[in-house]
Amino acid sequence: MVVKDDTFRVLIAGAGIAGLATSISLRRISDLANLDVHIYEQAPELLEIGASIALSPNGMRTLEKLGVNNALTDEVGYRGPSGIPQIFRHWKTNQVISVDTHNDVPDPRHHTTRFHRGHLHAALLEHVPRESIHLGKKIKRAEASQDRVSLHFEDGSSAHGHILIGADGIRSPVRQSFIPDYKLRFSGKVFMRSTFDVSLIEGKVPDLPIDAMHWWGPRDNFFASRLGKGQYTTVGAYDDPRTAEEVEQSIAWDQKGNVEFLRERYKDWNPTIRALTQLTPSTNLYPNFAGDALSTWVFGSRVTLIGDAAHAHGGSFAAGGSLALDDSLALGLAFKHVFNSPSRPSLSSDSINKALVLYSKTRQPHTARLLRIIHNQIKKRAPEDATFEEEDATLVARMKTRPNTEWLSEHDVETAFAAVINQSTSERYPEQASAVKEESKQGKAVDENIRLQGSKI
Ligand SMILES: Cc1cc2nc3c(=O)[nH]c(=O)nc-3n(C[C@H](O)[C@H](O)[C@H](O)COP(=O)(O)OP(=O)(O)OC[C@H]3O[C@@H](n4cnc5c(N)ncnc54)[C@H](O)[C@@H]3O)c2cc1C
Questions:
Q1: Ligand 1 centroid vs 238 CA: distance in angstroms?
Q2: What per-residue confidence (pLDDT) applies to 456?
Q3: Mean local confidence (pLDDT), 93-107
Q4: CA 242 to centroid of ligand 1, rounded, Å
């Protein structure tokens, strides 16, 4: 593929939530001239796969800013009638033991919303030109030189452009090309997820709350919620003591699980959960991996990462979808700021690098904070040999010390981006001030020279 000089060719690796949102943001937010976006996706077809995904107010507001209003309707996503984003109940007594609340979310459409991932994905897809998506393109590796970026695919073909955005998920081959020794860590948990028609459980489960519900046990949780388009989800988990390598080799992401195992696992929990597991028709398995924060998000001036590729947090706090959307908005704002500035800079490595640095400064500290919390929580798990009383005590302590996540769920990317711009402007002022000082010193010297030369004449 030849890159024409008058186009701004952007290669996006991966057509997941982050890849599609980035394509939308670059076109609508950055408003770049001659933009030519190409998305490369390994899947041969974009099917409605996955299970449930939640978006917090930050993600819902970002969808609106991106113009993806079709995802804000009550048909596509589900918002519980209480307006409470997270309700936590005790696994055995079914008592409410904690709640999270929205702090400053006046528009109910921005309340925490639960989707089938396929429906959210399809809503984004409506805003992306289909001809820009190249399916069946499994990326093997990525490269960057001074003036271009390249993706090399397993089918032997390659694509070239000016900018590369790795939106290729938690196991990102783009990230791996630039940080070959980056390793994910297995959290020790495997999630058993299921989505099915709500009619399978309606009227058949005692005390079933209408809102989404987390039941907390000493070791595992159970989650159940309605989703948009008449779907329902249940999510359980189990501990897997094996190493990351062993789990990688034996459980594929989205692999079919054994629903009897889910039922057995939760057989001592309260009757509502027992009934839900009995009615759950099947499960799929999702081993939970997470990775450390990256030291940089910018590689060779022209490459960056977005979504799970940039922050491999493994879905904790149900933040992955919202973070991916916020990343895409921040990237659009950064390109707008640099390339739509009055000086209209050319498509040089320097100006591209400047936009990518502004993007990473907006997003990297925020996501690194989340990764720190997640890794601390993984370390703090109850020991394997803990007695039941010790485990219940740990549960109570965990509820008491549960971190407030409003900084995450109500984060405002535009404000964060404005703060980065303000900071970099004030950092530039001292330079400008010292440059002015230097100039005036030189000016005085020149004036003095002229005066002396003049006196010689
Ligand atoms: C099939 C699937 C189902 C999921 N289901 C859920 C779910 O039920 N609940 C939930 O909370 N999260 C789920 N996730 C993860 C969730 O979508 C992300 O955590 C979050 O939305 C951030 O999105 P992302 O675009 O960064 O990553 P992803 O959504 O993982 O998207 C990454 C994209 O890159 C593509 N890709 C990966 N490797 C290559 C390669 N070598 N070459 C080309 N393309 C590649 C993938 O096929 C995918 O389309 C799922 C992800 C996938 C891919």
A1: 22
A2: 27
A3: 91
A4: 24
Tell me what the mean pLDDT of segment 427-447 comes to. Answer: 47
For the chain, helix (H) and strand (E) counts, in that order, are 12, 19
Indicate if 147 and 133 belong to the same structural domain. Answer: yes
Least confident of 49-53, 306-310, 403-407: 49-53
CB atoms within 10 A of CB 47: 10
Find the 288 Cα to ligand 1 centroid distance in Å: 13
25 lies in the same domain as 168: yes
Q: How far is CA 284 from CA 195, 261, 262, 367, in A?
A: 9, 12, 11, 28
Could you tell me the distance, in angstroms and rounded to a whole number, from the CA of residue 297 to the centre of ligand 1? 19
Same domain? 410 vs 339: yes
Report the CATH number that the domain containing residue 343 is assigned in CATH: 3.50.50.60
Ligand 1 pocket, Cβ-based, cut-off 6 angstroms: 13-19, 40-43, 49-53, 117, 137-139, 167-169, 173, 193, 254, 307-309, 315, 320-321, 324
Q: Do 41 and 179 share a domain, yes or no? A: yes
Range of the domain at 22: 8-74+115-184+293-419
Residue type, 26: L
For residues 230 and 379, membership in a common domain is answered with no
Tell how far the Cα of 173 is from the centroid of ligand 1, in angstroms: 13
CA-based nearest residue to 405, from 277, 271, 279, 313:
313
The per-residue pLDDT for range 179-213, each reduced to its tens digit, is 999 999 998 999 999 999 999 999 999 889 999 99
- Statement to judge: residues 230 and 311 lie in one domain: no
- Identify whether residues 32 and 148 lie together within a single domain: yes
The Cα–Cα gap between 65 and 52 comes to 23
The verdict on 252 and 308 lying in the same domain is no
How many percent of the chain have pLDDT more than 90?
71
pLDDT of residue 393: 75
Instruction: Identify whether 455 is part of a domain.
Output: no
Q: Which of 41, 174, 313 to mutate to test the pocket of ligand 1 (most atoms within 8 A of CB)?
A: 41
- The predicted structure's pLDDT at residue 379: 66
User: DSSP 3-state assignment of 239?
Assistant: strand
